[in-house]
Amino acid sequence: MEKDTYTILNKIQSPKDLRKLRLEELPQLCKELRDDIIDELSVNPGHLASSLGVVELTVALHYVYNTPDDRIVWDVGHQAYGHKILTGRREQFCTNRKLHGIRPFPSPLESEYDTFTCGHASNSISAALGMAMAARLSKQKRHVVAVIGDGAMSGGLAFEGLNNVSSSPNDILIVLNDNDMSIDRSVGGMRNLLLKLSTNETYNNMRFRLSRWLRRKGMLNDDRRQGLIRLNNALKSAISHQQNVFEGMNIRYFGPCDGHDVLELVRVLRQLKKYKGPKMLHLHTVKGKGYKPAEKAATIWHAPGKFDVDTGERIVSDNAGQPPKFQDVFGHTLLELAKQNKRIVGVTPAMPSGCSLNIMMKAMPDRTFDVGIAEGHAVTFSAGMAKDGLQPFCNIYSAFSQRAYDNIIHDAAILNLPVVICLDRAGLVGEDGPTHHGAFDLSFLRPIPNLTIASPMDEHELRHLMYTAQLPGKGTFVIRYPRGKGVCPDWKCPMKEIEVGTGRRLHEGTDVAVLSIGPVGNNVSQAIEQLESEGAKVSVAHYDMRFVKPLDQRLLEEIADKFDRIVTIEDGSVIGGFGSAVAEWMADHDKKPILRRIGLPDAFVEHGKVSELQQLTGLDVENIKKTILSL
Question: Which residues are catalytic?
Answer without folding.
Answer: 287, 375, 403
